[in-house]
Amino acid sequence: MSALLDVEDLRVTFPTRTGLIEAVRGVSFSLGRERLGIVGESGSGKSQTGRAIMGLTPPQARISARKLAFDGIDLLGISPRERRSLRGNRIAMILQDPKYSLDPVMSIGRQIVETLRTHEKVSKAEARERALAMLEAVQIRDPKRVFDLHPHEVSGGMGQRAMIAMMLIAGPEMMIADEPTSALDVTVQLDVLGILDRLVSERGMGLIFISHDLRLVSSFCDRVIVMYAGKVVEQLKASELGQAQHPYTRGLLNCMPRIGFERHPLPVLDRKPEWAA
Amino acid sequence: MTSAITVDGLEVIFDRFRALKGVSLEVRSGESFGLVGESGSGKSTLLRAIAGLASVASGSITVNGKTLGARRDKAFYREVQMVFQDPYGSLHPRQTVDRLLQEPLAIHGFADGEKRIERALDEVGLGNGFRFRYAHQLSGGQRQRVAIARALILEPSILLLDEPTSALDASVQAEVLNLLEEVRRRRKLTFLMVSHDLAIVTHMCERLMVMQGGEAVENLTAAQLVAHRVTEDYTRNLLRASEGFVRV
Amino acid sequence: MSAEAIQSRRDWLLSERPASRMQARLGRAYVAWRRFSANRLALVGLLIIIALLVIAALAGVLAPYSPTFGDLKNARLLAPSAEHWFGTDDLGRDIYSRILYGSRWTLYVVILVAIIAAPIGLLVGTVAGYAGGWTDAILMRVTDIFLAFPKLVLALAFVAALGPGIENAVLAIAITSWPPYARIARAETLTVRNSDYIKAVQLMGASPARIVLRHIMPLCISSLIVRVTLDMAGIILTAAGLGFLGLGAQPPLPEWGTMIASGRRFILDQWWVAGAPGFAILIVSLGFNLLGDGLRDALDPRSGDQ
Q1: Full domain range(s) for residue A155
Q2: What are the structural domains, with CATH classification, of chain C?
Q3: Please, are residues C98 and C156 in contact by the beta-carbon 8 Å criterion?
């Protein structure tokens, strides 16, 4: 399996009044055409890792890496314009809340059509056809009606599906999903994950799934990276999560209440300073 | 056992939208009761209606034997307190922890404020070092501890919990859940807890009610839920969803 | 003080674990001051305002001549010179001395207007915003009525009714300048009234008056201070305008607007008579504007709380 994305020693540094803060401190991994989960708590640097790969890091931050290559292209070496065209065409990103990523004054259908037409030369009629097909592919039952709706007129789950449709219309090879289902109800969450799963396997995409929910990630992804304080503390196959070695991973798994496992009080995480070292 | 909260045929209407459609509920004194449902199920509205934050269209609410009117008196707030979901929004941004805890004492005319504040902070595991901090100097978990201290300082018998840990990291959630269980045991509190997470509710509560679209779906004990002895399809769906993603 | 002592004091102020109410409050003030002083222009503004205060306090010492009596025989309309820095006016009075004394009247107007208008606006706005419903509708319609009139015209009407004089000018300006404050306070109140922290206070059993006074008003005050400071320049200009029209301060009071009015007859030949007080107004207005801009950065309730 050839690597789609190669990350070696990625660092993201934010300057603040009191000095430099390293949000990501030397993260290395590679992604094939698979589902890779990045798990961590707030402040672990998981989102900043995703943003750095997308090129969406705030401008005041500094990014460095020994290697940050997508399909052989050095992402840090190319111009912002080339980066932009890569984004959307070949790399897509889904964020937690579709309300912030969709344009509130444009209908959902038009947004998908516009996205398609900025990346490909297609006629209006054909773009519309493909947008409708895409809405159908994300299991929207009445695509013609949803096509003309505005983002505020649809539910959270529907909005997230529309977002996925918009991101997938250009046929990206890699997708980064940052907490794509955290704002959704549990039953809707599974529907959306099901759609993502099908599209990833049908199209042979590489997916980076960023989440705080270790349980969910391990049931969805092939491989899991656990991050703590800007570093990768453990990489393992999702199926082998039960045999996790690092105390942080184990603690994270343990401290969640589970149906049918009575533990009072819940085991808490005893953070060791050497984890962050 | 006596009843702490009795809700009978409660209707809440926002701008012609029926958020609660005749919900009834009984929480016994000293028990921990969970309300489970997805967004729009009316579980938070029910909690807010009991607290007096949502106006009731019809039906009745009885707390510790007293049927409540539209206005709550001061004595009610000595009995019932609430912890909110978002620890970032429930603490006043311009007040120190000290000031936040002093306010309820001042309103109810307690004299031994100093001692009570110290005790309350100790009880939630913060200690005096946090007393003069502002909310922005606290982490999410610490904020939620302050919110719990504020709710406990008037020594209520009933605590309403509105998704108290859903905004927290998993490891912090465990700490806060443990703290809540501990204060409940020590103070013999009655809990009414709202959550979307079945695992948390079965962990914290003895009985629960599943809600959907402003109506009660079914009443269960935690043991029934753990044994998957549920009768409604909706509950079964929720249970399945809480077990994670299953590839088909 | 040694560098070490300064450093330790700074650490004490910026401590994440204040040990007392006082330290927490001072620390907060210090953070605001650091944000304020990072803005050079704001410091210039502050300097101008401090200079104005000092001049007003020490006018009697600093002024070389009397502000009201001049040498009619020998010193009429003299050009600026070493003897009369800003020249003299048509009654032979030293303009420099008159401007120094005039700063007192400027401050008098500005402070009185702020003291009257800001609290009215704050009260009306927060009560309207928190109460909602009919109270809100009535209070805001009254506010709209006041807002609908041009400020100077309304002030003119008031002064015409009450009679000219600086006290009535202050009253007129105050009455016409509270509506924007009410609007700001109401907008701020609306954004916080449904927040959980206000709900939490309601659940403590606090009365509406207590919530408005102790929990909502403190949140509105900083944006109000900024707005009032930025409005100071406008207040000075309105006061000067009323003075210029003969409806504000009456001669021989050395009020800057009145001075410009009496100097306008000689504006082509003896430009300094109207020019000097005009320049004073310009500087002070600029000072208040710069100060207001700096305060906006320093007091922004949203920054630093996140």
Answers
A1: 91-171
A2: 108-299 (1.10.3720.10)
A3: no
A273 found inside a domain: no
Residue A60 lies in a domain: no
In this structure, is residue A198 part of a structural domain?
no
Cβ contacts of B82 on chain C, cutoff 8 Å: 200, 203
- Chains touching chain A through at least 3 C-beta pairs below 8 angstroms are B
B193 near B164, Cβ under 8 Å?
yes
Which of B 124-183 lie inside 8 A of A, CB atoms?
140, 169-175, 177-178, 181-182
ipTM score of complex:
0.90
Closest residue to A268, CB basis, from B39, B171, B181: B171
Facing C305 at nearest CB: one of B76, B93, B132: B93
Q: Which residues of chain B does A268 touch, with a Cβ-Cβ cutoff of 8 Å?
A: 171, 174-175, 178
User: Between chain A and chain B, how many beta carbons pairs sit less than 8 Å apart?
Assistant: 91
Q: Is the pLDDT of residue C302 over 80?
A: no
Domains and CATH numbers, chain B: 3-241 (3.40.50.300)
Burial degree of C190 (CB within 10 A; 0-12, 13-18, 19+): middle
Residue of B nearest to C17 (CA): B129
* The two three-digit tokens of residue B158, written as one number: 């009933």
Give yes or no for a contact between A255 and A266, defined as CB atoms under 8 angstroms apart: yes
Between CA B91 and CA B100 the distance in angstroms is 8
Q: How many domains does chain A have?
A: 1
Strands, sheet with B190-195, edge to edge from the N-terminal-most edge strand: B80-83, B158-162, B190-195, B32-36, B207-212, B215-221
Run means of pLDDT, 10 residues per run, chain A, 277 residues: 85 84 92 92 90 89 91 89 85 80 86 86 89 85 88 83 85 88 80 84 90 87 92 91 88 87 85 80
Q: C240-269 as b/e, with b when 16 or more CB fall inside 10 Å?
A: bbbbbbebbbeeebbbbbbbbbbbeeeeee
Cβ A159 vs Cβ A102: under 8 Å: yes
Write out pLDDT tens, residues B189-214: 999 999 988 999 999 999 999 999 89
| Chains sharing 3 or more CB pairs under 8 A with chain C | B
Of B46, B42, B37, B24, nearest to B210 by C-alpha is B37
Provide the β-strand partners of residue A15.
Answer: A20
Q: Does A121 touch chain B (CB under 8 A)?
A: no
In a domain, A153, yes or no: yes
Distance between CA atoms of residues B239 and B5, nearest Å: 27
Does a cis peptide bond (omega within 30 degrees of 0) precede residue A180?
Answer: no
- What residues in A contact B196, CB-CB < 8 Å? 185-186
Chain center to CA of B148: 10
Q: How far apart are CA A202 and CA A219, in angstroms?
A: 19
CB contact under 8 A, A268 and B177: no
